[in-house]
């Protein structure tokens, strides 16, 4: 996309009329033509999924934690990527008018919002982007919101203007409403918003930045949770009262912009926002969250869980809501012991891109285990699912999923060891695979019971012989772990591992 200015225009002087269209005094150009063209061909915030690969030509390489093989020769995921000419560290020279060059992995962008300009119409959003290093950045807020808002409209048709040339970037209506709310009355405000700070058209940058979202939400001084302009507004020149979230439950005086029904904790959790998978890590990792509701701002910190559970409606709160994970908000990590338990806690959450249902959960849990699982938006859903379940079974040490193998009824293009995963099957898979039922644990428990039984064997020679056998069996997992050397064929997805 080119700039709307007449070429060249090295020193633009932009002004905005009552029609909210930018014009340049230096070159005499108007953004009207480009705005019309962009609005006539609006795009969707969600990119289409890459097509599935042909059977026998899967070319699997994700994630790098899985050992892939090809033609009976073990190869690393990086080698398969190289054979497909997929570089893990490509040349970072791609340029974008709006975003500039592709970010390095140790960089991220921030939005700089300046105080409201009196001559600008209130609906116009103008901002600048700054690039910062992971080890050197200013205080900032990270925004948690949904692209489509409460009505699910994720069409990119509303312009925001960036930089001194006022380059156009179309965003959703909900994103623009959030940016208008955040615009400070004086000074500047530094914020991170995924749809703006990440070049969504650059798949490499998108994957790199999403892989470090946990770092971004941990490093901010607070998260700004935006529910939508149907439930939040601010009065010009008035500082909103600030209250802890649990006081929302019994608040009698709360002005709302468009709702007549009172808002309480239960109705808050029923909003579409809380059904989205990415917000889980966005609310668990930071130390503080602020939520504008009505004409007030409510805050969440590690004490919020205790206060909510003490409310009259708090008994069974986490069982009755669809957001049981919210009890961990601002606590910095999940308390679940394994990936299975965490997925069971979050499986009802949704995402516009179905791949994010995996990336969002794996990203948060990988921080707990210090394992880097890098999202790859260049792979198909088929590739993602095979890689995810292979990682889960082998690296996660959960062979129980093999009991759920679809076998002969497996979907076309999937290996027979893959479990059924669509619909409710996804939640059923993980709710039945908690750590207490691991094969290894059950086997060791059985051998321990056998040794206890053998203590009563009257024949000492028979007792010693059987005890020796039980001890050998108890050490089998230490001598040859079942997942050691496990591999997946990169072409057809076949899994090879020790089961005895």
Structure description:
Helix content is 29%, strand content 15%. It has 500 residues and is of the alpha/beta class. It has two domains: 45-87 and 373-500, no CATH class; 92-328, no CATH class. α11 packs antiparallel against α14 and α15 packs antiparallel against α16.
Describe the secondary structure blueprint for this structure.
Elements: E1 14-16, E2 22-24, H1 32-40, E3 43-44, E4 68-70, E5 73-75, H2 77-83, E6 95-96, E7 100-101, E8 107-114, E9 126-133, E10 141-144, E11 155-156, E12 158-162, E13 167-171, H3 173-182, E14 188-192, H4 194-197, H5 203-211, H6 213-219, E15 222-225, E16 242-244, H7 265-269, H8 279-284, E17 289-293, E18 296-300, H9 304-309, H10 317-320, H11 339-346, H12 356-369, H13 381-395, H14 425-431, H15 439-454, H16 460-474, H17 476-479, E19 487-489, E20 495-496
Parallel strand pairs: 4-19, 9-12, 10-14, 10-15, 15-17, 16-18
Antiparallel strand pairs: 1-2, 3-11, 4-5, 6-7, 8-9, 8-14, 12-13, 17-18, 19-20
Helix pairs in contact: 11-14, 15-16
Strand composition percent: 15-25%
Radius of gyration: 27 Å
Total helical segments: 17
Number of domains: 2
Shape: globular
Structural class designation: alpha/beta
Taking the alpha carbons of the first and last residues, their distance comes to: 59 Å
Q: What is the count of β-strands?
A: 20
Placed side by side, the strands forming the largest sheet appear as 13-12-9-8-14-10-15-17-18-16
Low-confidence stretches: 87-91, 433-437
Helix content: 25-40%
Biggest sheet architecture = 10 strands, mixed
The pLDDT mean sits at 83
InterPro entries: HET, HetReg/Transcr_Mod
Pfam family, one: HET
Domain Heterokaryon incompatibility: 140-282
Organism: Fusarium vanettenii (strain ATCC MYA-4622 / CBS 123669 / FGSC 9596 / NRRL 45880 / 77-13-4)
């Amino acid at each position: 996309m080119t700039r709307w200015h007449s070429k060249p225009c090295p020193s633009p002087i932009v002004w905005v009329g009552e029609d909210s269209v930018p014009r340049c005094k230096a070159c005499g150009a108007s953004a009207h033509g480009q705005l019309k063209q962009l609005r006539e061909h609006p795009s969707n915030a969600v990119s289409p999924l890459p097509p599935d690969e042909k059977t026998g030509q899967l070319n699997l390489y994700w994630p790098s934690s899985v050992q892939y093989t090809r033609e009976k020769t073990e190869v690393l995921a990086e080698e398969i990527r190289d054979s497909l000419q997929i570089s893990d560290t490509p040349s970072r020279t791609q340029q974008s008018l709006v975003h500039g060059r592709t970010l390095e992995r140790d960089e991220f962008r921030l939005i700089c919002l300046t105080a409201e300009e009196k001559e600008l119409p209130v609906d116009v959003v103008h901002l600048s982007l700054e690039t910062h290093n992971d080890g050197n950045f200013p205080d900032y807020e990270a925004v948690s919101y949904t692209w489509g808002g409460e009505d699910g409209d994720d069409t990119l048709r509303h312009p925001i203007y960036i930089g001194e040339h006022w380059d156009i970037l179309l965003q959703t209506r909900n994103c623009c409403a959030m940016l208008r709310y955040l615009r400070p009355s004086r000074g500047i405000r530094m914020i991170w918003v995924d749809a703006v700070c990440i070049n969504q058209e650059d798949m490499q940058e998108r994957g790199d930045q999403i892989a470090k979202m946990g770092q971004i939400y941990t490093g901010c001084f607070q998260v700004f949770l935006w529910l939508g302009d149907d439930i939040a507004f601010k009065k010009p020149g008035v500082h909103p009262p600030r209250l802890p979230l649990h006081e929302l439950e019994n608040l009698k005086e709360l002005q709302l912009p468009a709702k007549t029904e009172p808002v309480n904790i239960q109705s808050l959790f029923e909003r579409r926002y809380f059904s989205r998978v990415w917000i889980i890590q966005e609310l668990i990792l930071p130390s503080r969250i602020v939520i504008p509701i009505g004409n007030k701002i409510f805050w969440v910190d590690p004490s919020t869980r205790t206060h909510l559970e003490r409310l009259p409606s708090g008994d069974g709160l986490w069982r009755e809501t669809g957001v049981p994970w919210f009890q961990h908000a601002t606590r910095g990590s999940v308390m679940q012991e394994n990936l299975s338990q965490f997925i069971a806690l979050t499986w009802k959450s949704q995402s516009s891109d179905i791949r994010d249902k995996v990336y969002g959960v794996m990203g948060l849990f990988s921080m707990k285990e210090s394992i880097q699982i890098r999202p790859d938006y260049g792979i198909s859903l088929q590739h993602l699912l095979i890689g995810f379940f292979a990682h889960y079974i082998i690296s996660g040490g959960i062979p129980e999923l093999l009991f759920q193998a679809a076998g002969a009824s497996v979907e076309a293009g999937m290996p027979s060891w893959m479990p059924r995963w669509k619909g409710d099957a996804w939640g059923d898979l993980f709710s039945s695979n908690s750590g207490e039922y691991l094969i290894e644990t059950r086997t060791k428990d059985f051998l321990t019971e056998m040794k206890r039984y053998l203590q009563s064997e009257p024949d000492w020679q028979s007792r010693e012989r059987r005890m020796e056998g039980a001890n050998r069996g108890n050490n089998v997992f230490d001598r040859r772990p079942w997942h050691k050397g496990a591999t997946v064929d990169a072409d057809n997805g076949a899994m090879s591992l020790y089961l005895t």
